[in-house]
Design brief:
58% strand, mainly beta
């Protein structure tokens, strides 16, 4: 099995920065891609950023130029650097691992951006 644990969320003022971390354990070689999603209250979950095993990266239009997804294979960790945060970034952020037989999700970490 694969387990994902997020950390790094918190409260920040608009314009500030946070770095989210996702520590993966278990059969991590089964993961094809890692991503970050977010879900605000009353809203649908949306993709924020994804990184493939080959290192390709994609971002939602709303975060391009502000967020950066990266990974440290030696630490089995994927990161989401979040800069120039806006109140509309407020959400629970979830780490996602894509496998051929289904996705694995972390428990989520709350990010709150005040105006």
């Amino acid at each position: 099995q694969v387990q994902l644990v997020e950390s790094g969320g918190g409260l920040v003022q608009a314009g500030g920065s946070l770095r989210l971390s996702c520590l993966a354990s278990g059969n991590i070689l089964s993961i094809n891609a890692m991503g970050w999603y977010r879900q605000a209250p009353g809203k649908q979950r949306e993709l924020v950023a994804v990184i493939t095993t080959g290192g390709s990266r994609n971002y939602a239009d709303s975060v391009k130029g502000r967020f950066t997804i990266s990974r440290d294979n030696a630490k089995n960790t994927v990161y989401l650097q979040m800069n120039s945060l806006k109140p509309e970034d407020t959400a629970v952020y979830y780490c996602n691992g894509r496998r051929g037989w289904g996705d694995v999700w972390g428990q989520g970490t709350q990010v709150t951006v005040s105006s």
